[in-house]
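Budget justification aside, the reviewers requested a transparent look at the raw inputs and outputs of the sequence design task funded under Objective 1. We therefore reproduce one unedited record. The lines immediately below are the C-alpha cells for a 664-residue chain.
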C-alpha cells in the first residue's frame, strides 16, 4: 500500500519541479548590483534549439532601443539560427557563430562580415566542440578585448578525431544515424590553436602558444586583463601542467605569466576562472599548490608575494576585490558540507572575517567595485533566499530581501518528510534520511545513494528535494555518502583515486553500508545501492567486490570501461591508456562481469551522447558470457538525463518497483 501511495504523492511533485526554488539569474543580479548597462542595443533570442548539455542555436535579434527597431542577427547573410552571440564591451559589435565559422555584426551600420571562412565544418572557430563543452564547461571560445578592437578565439581542427555514430529509432520507418566527433581516451583530440582578429584591418594573427603537438594541448579559457593584456590558459593533455600565457596580439609572441605542474596529481584548470585582477597589474590566484585550495597574491610580473587564506580549508570561489578597502571577498568550506562567505585584506596579514551567518550553503555575487553583495542562502530546511547587502571592508549592512521562496517552502512542508541527519562514518561525509513512520523496534531496508566521481560532492547542507525523498516516503532509509576522491577535504583526499578509479570508492561504500547494518533500525539483509553516470559505474564496480553487502543495485547510464569514455575527463584522472594500461584494466567492469552478485537493474538512453549506450551493450555482453542474469530498461533516443516525454516518471517508478520486489 505504501508503494502505491508514492505514485500519487511526492514523486510527481518532485518530477514536476514543484520544489525547485526560484533563482535570480546572473543578469538579474548584475542589474541590481551595477544598474542596467547604458547601451543602445540589446540581444533577444527566440526558438532556441538545444545541441548538447550547454549549447544551443536560436534566432537572435538585435533591438535598437533608440530607433525602436528589431533585426535578426545574420539576416544580411541569410544565416538563420546562430549560436553564442557575444557583444563587445563598447556595445558596437556582436560576434557569433554559424556552422562553426565566426561572424561580426556591426551594430551602428547593421552590416555583417565573416571573420572565418572555413568550408570544412570539422574546423571550428570560436565555439566549443563536444569535448570542450562537456569537460571544460564552455560553449564560446572567444573573447573581446577591453577596447573592442580585437577578438581572440580558439580554432579547433577535428578532422583526425574519430566519429561516434548512434541510431535514432523513433519517428521514422527506417532508423537514421546521428554522429559527432568524440575523442575517446588515448585517441586523437582536435588540434587547437589561438587566433586574434583585428576589427579595423580584418586580419587574423595566429599566436605562438601551441607548443609541439596541437592535439596534445587544451586552451579552455581566453581572458583579457583590464589593461588589455590577452591571457591564454594552456593545459597539457594529461592535465598535469597548467600555464597562463601573456600574449602580444600584434607580435604573436607569448611568455608564461604563471605555471603549475605536478607529477603526482591532476591540475584543476577551473581555478583560473576565480582569478581576480587589481588595477596596478597584481592578481590574486586560487591554487591548491600546497595541498589546499588557497588564495595567493602575485605581483604584475607573476611573482608570488603572499598567501591570503588559511591552511586546512578549501576556498571554493573568489568573488571580488574592493581596491578602496583593499579587501578580497571569497567563499570557502569550513566543513565539507557547508559554504560560508569571508572577507580578508590582501594588503596586510590579517585573519579572514566570516561575513555570512547561519549553518548551510552561502554563495554570493558582488558589484563590480565590491561595495554591494547579493547573498544566496540555503540549507536542508531553507530554499534559496536572496538578500542584498552593502559591504565595506569586513562589514556588511542588510538592505533588502529580494526573494525568499516562501511558496516553495510551504509546498514542501505540506508533505511532512524528514530532513537529513549529518553523519561521519569512519572519516566519510554522509547524511541519513529515515522514514517518519519508522518503528524503532523494527528495521528498515537501506538504499545507499551516491555519485562518487572525482572532486564531486553529494553530501551538502543545501536545498535538494529529489528522488531520495520518494524512497523515504516509500519506507526506505536512505544513506548518501561521499567516498575518497570527493571534494573539499584537501588535495590529497581529492587525489586518493588518481590513476586507479573504482577500487577505493568501492571499499568506502561497502564500509559505510556495513557500519549502517550494525544499527538496530537498519536491516542489513535488505540493502541496495543506486547511482547515475559515474555513480552507475561505481554501483556495478562495488557489486563486483567480494563480500559486498548489497542485495540489489540500480545503475543508470553507467560507464563500464574508461577506454570507451572521452579523453579530457578520463585522462584527467587516469592519464592515457598508453601509459596506464594496468589502471584501465583494473578499472574496467568488462573484466568483472563474472564477479557481479546481487540483483541489478541497468538503465540507459540509446541517444546518450555523453556515456554512450555502447558502454551498457558491451557490459551486458560480458554478463551474458558469464551467465549472469540482470534486468534492463532502455529509453529510445533519449540522452544522458532521461527527461524526454514521460521517461523520468517511468524510470523512477520502474526503480521503485524493482526495489520493492528485490528487497521485499
Amino acid at each position: 500500500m505504501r508503494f502505491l501511495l508514492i505514485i500519487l504523492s511526492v514523486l510527481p511533485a518532485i518530477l514536476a519541479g514543484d520544489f525547485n526554488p526560484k533563482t535570480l539569474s546572473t543578469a538579474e543580479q548584475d542589474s541590481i548590483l551595477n544598474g542596467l548597462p547604458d547601451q543602445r542595443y540589446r540581444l533577444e533570442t527566440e526558438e532556441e534549439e538545444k545541441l548538447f548539455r550547454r549549447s544551443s542555436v536560436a534566432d537572435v535579434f538585435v533591438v535598437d532601443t533608440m530607433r525602436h527597431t528589431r533585426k535578426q542577427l545574420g539576416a544580411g547573410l541569410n544565416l538563420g539560427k546562430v549560436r553564442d552571440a557575444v557583444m563587445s564591451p563598447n556595445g558596437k559589435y556582436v560576434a557569433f557563430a554559424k556552422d562553426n565559422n565566426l561572424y561580426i555584426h556591426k551594430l551602428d551600420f547593421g552590416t555583417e562580415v565573416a571573420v572565418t571562412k572555413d568550408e570544412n565544418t570539422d574546423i571550428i572557430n570560436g565555439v566549443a566542440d563536444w569535448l570542450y563543452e562537456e569537460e571544460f564547461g564552455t560553449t564560446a571560445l572567444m573573447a573581446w578585448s577591453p577596447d573592442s578592437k580585437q577578438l581572440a578565439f580558439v580554432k579547433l581542427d577535428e578532422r583526425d578525431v574519430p566519429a561516434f555514430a548512434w541510431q535514432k529509432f523513433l519517428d521514422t520507418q527506417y532508423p537514421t544515424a546521428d554522429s559527432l566527433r568524440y575523442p575517446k581516451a588515448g585517441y586523437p583530440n582536435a588540434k587547437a590553436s589561438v587566433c586574434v582578429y583585428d576589427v579595423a584591418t580584418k586580419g587574423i594573427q595566429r599566436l605562438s602558444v601551441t607548443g609541439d603537438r596541437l592535439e596534445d594541448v587544451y586552451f579552455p579559457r581566453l581572458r583579457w586583463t583590464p589593461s588589455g593584456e590577452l591571457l591564454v590558459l594552456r593545459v597539457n593533455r594529461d592535465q598535469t601542467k597548467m600555464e597562463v600565457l601573456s600574449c602580444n596580439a600584434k607580435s604573436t609572441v607569448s611568455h608564461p605569466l604563471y605555471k603549475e605542474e605536478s607529477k603526482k596529481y591532476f591540475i584543476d584548470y577551473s581555478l583560473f576562472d576565480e582569478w581576480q585582477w587589481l588595477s596596478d597589474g597584481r592578481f590574486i590566484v586560487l591554487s591548491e599548490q600546497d595541498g589546499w585550495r588557497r588564495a595567493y597574491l602575485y605581483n604584475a610580473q607573476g611573482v608570488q608575494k603572499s598567501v591570503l587564506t588559511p591552511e586546512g580549508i578549501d576556498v571554493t570561489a573568489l568573488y571580488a576585490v574592493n581596491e578602496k578597502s583593499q579587501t578580497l571577498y571569497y567563499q570557502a568550506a569550513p566543513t565539507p558540507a557547508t559554504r560560508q562567505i569571508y572577507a580578508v585584506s590582501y594588503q596586510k596579514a590579517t585573519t579572514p572575517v566570516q561575513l555570512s551567518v547561519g549553518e548551510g550553503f552561502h554563495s554570493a555575487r558582488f558589484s563590480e567595485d565590491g561595495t554591494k553583495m547579493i547573498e544566496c542562502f540555503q540549507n536542508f530546511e531553507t530554499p534559496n533566499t536572496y538578500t542584498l547587502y552593502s559591504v565595506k571592508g569586513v562589514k556588511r549592512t542588510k538592505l533588502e530581501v529580494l526573494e525568499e521562496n516562501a511558496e516553495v517552502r510551504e509546498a514542501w512542508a505540506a508533505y511532512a518528510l524528514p530532513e537529513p541527519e549529518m553523519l561521519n562514518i569512519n572519516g566519510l561525509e554522509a547524511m541519513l534520511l529515515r522514514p517518519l513512520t519508522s518503528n524503532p523496534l523494527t528495521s528498515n531496508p537501506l538504499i545507499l545513494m551516491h555519485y562518487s566521481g572525482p572532486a564531486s560532492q553529494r553530501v551538502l547542507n543545501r536545498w535538494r528535494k529529489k528522488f531520495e525523498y520518494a524512497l523515504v516516503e516509500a519506507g526506505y532509509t536512505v544513506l548518501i555518502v561521499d567516498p575518497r576522491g570527493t571534494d573539499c577535504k584537501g588535495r590529497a583526499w581529492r587525489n586518493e583515486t588518481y590513476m586507479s578509479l573504482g577500487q577505493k570508492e568501492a571499499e568506502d561504500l561497502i564500509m559505510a553500508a556495513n557500519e549502517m547494518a550494525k544499527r538496530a533500525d537498519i536491516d542489513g539483509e535488505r540493502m541496495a545501492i543506486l547511482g547515475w553516470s559515474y555513480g552507475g559505474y561505481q554501483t556495478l564496480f562495488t557489486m563486483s567486490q567480494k563480500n559486498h553487502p548489497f542485495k540489489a543495485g540500480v545503475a543508470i547510464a553507467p560507464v563500464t570501461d574508461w577506454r570507451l569514455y572521452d579523453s579530457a575527463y578520463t585522462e584527467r584522472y587516469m592519464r592515457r591508456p598508453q601509459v596506464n594500461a594496468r589502471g584501465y584494466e583494473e578499472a574496467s567492469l568488462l573484466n568483472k562481469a563474472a564477479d557481479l552478485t546481487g540483483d541489478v537493474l541497468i538503465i540507459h538512453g540509446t541517444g546518450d551522447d555523453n556515456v554512450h549506450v555502447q558502454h551498457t551493450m558491451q557490459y551486458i555482453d560480458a554478463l551474458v558470457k558469464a551467465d549472469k542474469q540482470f534486468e534492463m530498461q532502455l529509453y529510445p533516443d533519449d540522452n544522458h538525463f532521461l527527461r524526454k516525454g514521460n521517461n523520468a516518471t517511468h524510470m523512477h517508478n520502474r526503480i521503485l518497483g524493482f526495489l520493492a520486489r528485490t528487497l521485499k
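The longest strand covers residues 522-532. The mean pLDDT is 94. Computational costs for records of this kind are itemized in the attached budget.
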